[in-house]
């Protein structure tokens, strides 16, 4: 009797590998089982029966498959659908005129619309200066003439509410968020300067990004499976930390039925509850500080706590305590790599407390994602380079014994567990021709 050939890998199999749920070897084993099965069996059922997937993981993959298939059906004839994990646009373009209720001077609406269309991350507006945008990490001039103080002040009046205008007058600067409409939100810093008033606008899509749209590996979804512990996303300013955290929060929102508390300064992405209840609080409008909000958090019945930035001793201490007491804590820090992040968390405490903190961190840390954005070799935007640490017994021992300098060695040996150093990530991108070796050298300098 002729042996049946193993079936080709379907979308469920590709998604399972993409999200790091199974290895290629495990998938191949199940495909061989499927090819020999009489009567025929579905690949997903075999993956569950073999113990490679849990039923809830399979359910998630089926939902993702249905979403991708629905997108494919709505694409124009001849347009190729993106593969799993391929980034795709996350926001529509602004209209030619401001929508009803948005009293933005026309010249600034044009600047904002053009900045969004060109993929800029920031728009810089200041009286007495030409406007600039930041695109692909570089600042570029976009206006021919310096801006006058009057129109800039009119723009600030349109963005700010009365308390914010008073804070600007009193303190000379104010942070906040602005719902522009038409799928766009801006994080802003308004200020007074030598030439007059100004504002820096960070363009934030109203639609919460996914790991796929950000071009991030699906294995990061593993962090959303923890019921408690600390997950840190780190890197320099402007490297996409907030977007990565937002994608993880959205996964929790879609897959669990829990209470999520988000603390930010200011609020960037606005979440719509899916399976979870989501409470978003802005510092200092809704709470005087991160620490104050965290002290109150335990009385707000959270399962997941998201901290926009962990930058002081009290915030870090409260975050560690929350992670130890049964909460999943997601936070960001401005650190360069995973070992440096561990050292920073410990080093922020006084020397006489660091031994206890090492013990706490070794048990509560679930992982660290350090990221940078590198210019693509083809000039079409930027691509993330990642350092990924998943805590295990060996790494926990190094943290406890104050041997964090050896963590990088264990990360290099932990690639089968999904770990990766920044050097390895950059090298892979260069070998694949995604980025140039010069860009890698600049990123590692």
């Amino acid at each position: 009797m002729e042996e049946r050939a193993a079936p080709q890998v379907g979308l469920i199999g590709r998604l399972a590998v993409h999200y790091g749920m199974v290895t290629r070897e495990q998938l191949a084993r199940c495909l061989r089982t499927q090819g020999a099965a009489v009567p025929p069996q579905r690949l997903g059922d075999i993956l569950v029966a073999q113990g490679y997937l849990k039923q809830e993981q399979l359910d998630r993959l089926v939902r993702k498959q249905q979403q991708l298939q629905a997108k494919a059906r709505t694409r124009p004839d001849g347009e190729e659908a993106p593969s799993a994990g391929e980034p795709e646009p996350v926001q529509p373009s602004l209209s030619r005129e401001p929508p009803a209720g948005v009293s933005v001077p026309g010249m600034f609406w044009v600047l904002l619309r053009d900045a969004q269309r060109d993929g800029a991350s920031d728009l810089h507006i200041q009286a007495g200066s030409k406007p600039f945008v930041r695109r692909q990490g570089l600042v570029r001039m976009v206006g021919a003439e310096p801006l006058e103080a009057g129109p800039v002040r009119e723009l600030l009046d349109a963005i700010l509410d009365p308390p914010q205008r008073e804070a600007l007058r009193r303190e000379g600067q104010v942070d906040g968020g602005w719902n522009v409409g038409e799928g766009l939100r801006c994080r802003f810093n308004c200020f007074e300067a030598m030439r007059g008033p100004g504002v820096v606008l960070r363009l934030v899509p109203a639609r919460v990004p996914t790991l796929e749209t950000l071009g991030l590996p699906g294995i990061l979804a593993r962090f959303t499976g923890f019921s408690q512990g600390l997950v840190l996303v780190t890197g320099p300013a402007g490297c996409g930390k907030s977007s990565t955290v937002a994608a993880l929060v959205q996964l929790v929102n879609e897959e669990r039925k829990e209470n999520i508390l988000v603390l930010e300064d200011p609020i960037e992405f606005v979440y719509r509850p899916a399976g979870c209840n989501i409470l978003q609080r802005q510092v200092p409008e809704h709470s005087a500080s991160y620490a104050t909000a965290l002290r109150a958090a335990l009385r707000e019945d959270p399962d997941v706590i998201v901290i926009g930035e962990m930058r002081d001793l009290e915030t870090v201490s409260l975050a560690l305590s929350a992670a130890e007491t049964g909460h999943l804590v997601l936070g960001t820090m401005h650190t360069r790599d995973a070992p440096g992040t561990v050292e920073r968390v410990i080093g922020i405490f006084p020397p006489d407390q660091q031994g206890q903190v090492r013990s706490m961190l070794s048990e509560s840390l679930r992982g660290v994602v350090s990221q940078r954005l590198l210019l693509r070799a083809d000039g079409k935007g930027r691509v993330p380079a990642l350092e990924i640490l998943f805590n295990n017994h060996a790494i926990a021992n190094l943290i406890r014994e104050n041997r964090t300098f050896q963590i990088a060695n264990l990360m290099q040996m932990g690639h089968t567990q999904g770990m990766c150093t920044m050097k390895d990530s950059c090298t892979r991108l260069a070998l694949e021709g995604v980025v140039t070796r010069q860009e890698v050298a600049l990123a590692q300098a």
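Residues 1-8, 75-91 have pLDDT under 50 and may be disordered. The chain has three domains: 11-74, 106-205, 218-444.
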